[in-house]
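RECORD TYPE: inverse folding
INPUT: structure tokens
STRUCTURE:
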């Protein structure tokens, strides 16, 4: 029932549930993604009609359910991760100008300046293959081959990955590792001391790379 589809905030044990926004028929357009400071609960492409230049509007949803800013992104299928300080976003989109392959971007998401800084990165991958190690350093698994449409349907990516680092705010990327076996990398995370990177492979096994 569309009238029952809502965005809620709740305690981890299911108590103190509070409805912050009705979703109706737009539930599939909302991604829940808490900012580090808890001020933003997610993103919505609701009411985004796009443009002839392939740009779309993505709205930030505040913890009160109200719009908290808007990002102008140059493609569809917007997905993101927050920098640890919550000031910036690393995100990927499906780029219509590149047969809807993924394009990786870095942008400002602080206060009223949402989207003022937008940097297109040279690496082509989906953001779910990336992780921040610090506010100024991220690691991404980058597929060797990206078929057309893979920015919209990432499951179509079947090639192995190489590991790259990205330094911010310059966006400079560096090849870090080429796995010994043809390995697809998922669920990247970096140890607290920054010395190891963990990931799972296509078989669900946990792997380790010394950085």
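DESIGNED SEQUENCE:
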């Amino acid at each position: 029932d569309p009238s029952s589809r809502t965005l809620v905030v709740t305690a981890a044990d299911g108590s103190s549930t509070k409805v912050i926004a009705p979703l109706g028929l737009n539930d599939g357009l909302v991604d829940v993604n808490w900012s580090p400071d808890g001020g933003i609960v997610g993103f919505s492409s609701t009411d985004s009609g796009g443009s002839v230049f392939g740009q779309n509007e993505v709205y930030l949803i505040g913890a009160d359910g109200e719009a908290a800013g808007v990002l102008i992104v140059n493609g569809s299928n917007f997905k993101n991760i927050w920098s640890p300080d919550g000031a910036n976003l690393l995100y990927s989109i499906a780029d219509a100008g590149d047969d809807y392959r993924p394009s990786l971007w870095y942008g400002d998401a602080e206060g009223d300046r949402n989207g003022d800084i937008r940097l297109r990165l040279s690496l082509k991958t989906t953001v779910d293959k990336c992780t921040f190690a610090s506010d100024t350093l991220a690691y991404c698994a980058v597929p060797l081959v990206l078929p057309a449409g893979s920015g919209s349907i990432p499951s179509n990516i079947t090639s192995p990955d190489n590991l790259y680092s990205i330094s911010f705010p310059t966006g400079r990327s560096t090849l870090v590792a080429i796995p010994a076996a043809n390995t697809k990398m998922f669920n990247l995370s970096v140890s607290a001391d920054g010395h190891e990177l963990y990931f799972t492979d296509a078989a669900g096994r946990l792997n380790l790379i010394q950085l």
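NOTES: The chain is about 0% helix and 45% strand.
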